[in-house]
Design brief:
The complex is a heterodimer. By secondary structure, chain A is an alpha/beta fold. Chain A has one domain: Rossmann fold (3-Layer(aba) Sandwich), CATH 3.40.50. Chain A has a five-stranded parallel β-sheet with strand order 2-1-3-4-5, with helices on both faces. Helix content of chain A is about 45%, strand content about 20%. By secondary structure, chain B is α+β, with helices and mostly antiparallel strands. In chain B, strands 2-1-5-4-3-6 form a six-stranded mixed β-sheet. Classes of the chains: A alpha/beta, B alpha+beta. At the A-B interface, α1 and α5 of A face α9 and α10 of B.
Chain lengths: ~120, ~425
């Protein structure tokens, strides 16, 4: 497909696994592992989709997402949010922050692939 | 002070039954053998903490020593009857029941005691599981490992043709993540194993500091003249402090309590306590010291100088509890936010104003306490810069019953108080609606 995905996640082995399955599916994958400068990295890369973990060093995924949604350039950027908390209130928090979709850990590779394909196609 | 005409005789009887020499029991509770001898011959009054300590050392209820076996059993039955909602026992025939069926009465008393212990464990565990930041982080770590393992295993299982380099890499990742997961699970199990005992399971620096303070009974009068190096060596030598963070926090607290001891010596306090009992504002005014110093000092010396130990709790401007000296009957949460109705938090909105409020702690025991609170600025005062405040609350147990006062809880999650405007989350212990 040749489309670009930026994965913002601090766990190296999760990054490696997601990068592998997305690359095999034809995606061009870039990664970043801390939240402190993540907004700037997204704005510089302008990917077709961001996969964003909630718990990041330096800044939470929620704060990063709110900043992205406050900027014109990234307001409509598809963002798939990953979190270990799956309660209704966490889903609602992700929606309020502006997540396009919310996925709880642990997730399957197929779930990630399906979500990425749908979000970019949509 | 409880009636104790024959308390000394009962202590002697129980000590002999336990096979303890006088010197052994005296050592266990921190008094001299000669003093214990006086107590056992009913020549010295005994009550409060010392009575509790002796009862604990002899493995009996304090009321058994102060009032005798039958009185202790009757008291337990009355307590069980007062706290049951499912039945309506005939209270006026309780002594008849205990006299005719002592075995069954003892069974009811034992089961009531066990029920209270289990409720306390449940409340402690709930507090920990809901609000423990260390637990939340540990669980998140484990879920992250599980996610990595699941994704990696899925790749190895579902990818038909995978380069050897990638296969080896993913096998290595699986191995690493499964080891981390196993270690995390072991630590979590060990951590939760200690959760039922509110005094164990110390992993947070603040908990280690509080354990160290408890060992020293919050008193560091012996360090009044210590040099900075001696003070550092003292803190470094405390076995309860296992991390630099705990030692740093302990140093701050010890310095504060030592400064309090310098401002308010034991002699100064003894004169005040002999004259008028616990009146913190008067003590602060008479000696020209901050009220917070008096509150901390009274809590620190209460175990040895007052009939009952006093509690103390401190919070910062955000309402986060920073220091706890527990007192029986006044539950102070370890992790979750405390009851917003405590005078401790009211003092934050009225800096430098001394507050006193009599409160009833909700729950099965419903004990009454006089709470003295004050918040004072910290750090250097700067022009046009709003200061930060620390708030302190001294908790004085009351024995006599009185009119209904302000009802307060420990934390919302374990408070049964219905229709409380301060409630921020549902309670597990009552249907509050």
């Amino acid at each position: 497909m040749g489309k670009n995905v930026l994965v913002i996640e601090d766990e190296p082995n999760i990054i490696e696994a997601i990068s592998f399955i997305l690359s095999r599916d034809g995606w061009s994958v870039a990664t970043h592992s801390n939240g402190h400068d993540a907004v700037g990295v997204v704005q510089a890369a302008m990917p077709d989709l961001v996969i964003l973990d909630v718990m990041l060093p330096g800044k939470t995924g929620y704060d990063i997402l709110r900043e992205l949604r406050s900027e014109d350039a990234t307001q409509g950027l598809p963002v798939l949010m990953l979190t270990a908390k799956g309660q209704v209130k966490d889903r609602e928090m992700a929606e309020r922050a502006g997540a396009s979709r919310f996925m709880t850990k642990p997730f399957s590779n197929a779930e990630v692939l399906d979500a990425v394909r749908e979000l970019v196609a949509g | 002070m409880v009636q104790q005409t024959l308390a000394g005789s009962r202590i002697r009887e129980r000590r002999v039954m336990a096979g303890l020499r006088q010197a052994e029991l005296a050592h266990q509770v921190g008094i001299s053998g000669s003093y214990l001898n006086l107590i056992e011959h009913n020549r010295r009054r005994i009550g409060g903490k010392l009575l509790n300590d002796i009862a604990q050392a002899l493995n009996v209820e304090p009321s058994l020593l102060s009032e005798g076996a039958e009185a202790a059993l009757l008291a337990a039955l009355r307590e069980a009857a007062a706290e049951t909602e499912a039945a309506t026992p005939e209270l006026e025939r309780g002594d008849e029941f205990a006299g005719r069926f002592p075995g069954w009465a003892g069974l009811i008393a034992d089961q009531h005691k066990r029920l209270r212990s289990l409720e306390h464990t449940a409340a402690t565990l709930t507090d920990r599981l809901t609000h423990d930041p260390h637990l939340a982080t540990s669980v998140h770590e484990m879920l992250t490992m599980v996610t990595a393992i699941r994704s990696t295993a899925g790749i190895l299982a579902d990818t038909k043709e995978i380069e050897p380099e990638w296969r080896n890499r993913f096998h290595r990742n699986l191995n690493e993540d499964s080891q981390r997961l196993a270690e995390g699970a072991e630590q979590l199990v060990a951590y939760l194993d200690d959760a039922g005992d509110a005094s164990a399971g110390m992993t947070l620096p603040l908990e280690e500091v509080e354990a160290m303070l408890a060992v020293h009974k919050f008193r560091f009068d012996n360090l009044v003249n210590a040099t900075p190096d001696e003070l550092s060596a003292f803190v470094a030598a405390q076995a309860q402090l296992t991390s630099d963070a705990a030692r740093d926090m302990a140093m701050t607290v010890v310095r504060q309590l030592r400064a309090d001891a310098r401002l308010l010596s034991l002699d100064m306090l003894e004169r005040q306590l002999t004259d008028g009992g616990v009146e913190p504002a008067r003590i602060a005014s008479d000696y020209g010291v901050p009220l917070s110093t008096v509150l901390r000092r009274l809590a620190a010396v209460s175990d040895d100088m007052l009939p009952m130990p006093l509690g103390l709790v401190m919070c910062d401007a955000a309402g986060t509890l920073m220091l706890r000296k527990p007192v029986e009957g006044f539950a102070i949460p370890r992790f979750s936010g405390a009851c917003p109705k405590w005078p401790l938090f009211q003092a934050l909105s009225r800096p430098m104003q001394a507050l006193r409020q009599t409160v009833t702690m909700t729950g099965r025991e419903a004990k009454r306490f006089d709470c003295y609170a004050v918040s004072e600025p910290i750090g250097t005062i700067q022009v046009n810069v709003a200061p930060l405040y620390h708030s302190y609350m001294l908790i004085v147990p009351l024995e006599e019953a009185g009119d209904a006062e302000a009802a307060v809880g420990s934390s919302c999650r374990v408070c049964p108080l219905a229709q409380c405007e301060g409630r921020r989350e549902p309670s597990l212990l009552a249907d509050v609606g």
